[in-house]
Design brief:
The chain has one helix and two strands, in the order H-E-E. By secondary structure, it is of the alpha+beta class. The chain has a two-stranded antiparallel ribbon. Strand 1 and strand 2 form a beta hairpin.
């Protein structure tokens, strides 16, 4: 995440169920972190998919 500097926003999806729901929408149900959203691009997991 350091590549994103201050543009990155961290959400603790374990502690915030609304953010967990949002993450699952972006990841199409995949429970893998990080989920990185850049405009229309979504990257899931370290190394991306």
């Amino acid at each position: 995440m350091s590549d994103f500097g201050d543009r990155a926003v961290y959400f603790n999806v374990k502690a915030d169920s609304a953010k967990m729901d949002e993450m699952l929408k972006f990841s199409k149900g995949v429970r893998k972190v990080p989920v990185i959203v850049e405009g229309q691009n979504v990257t899931i997991g370290y190394g991306g998919s």
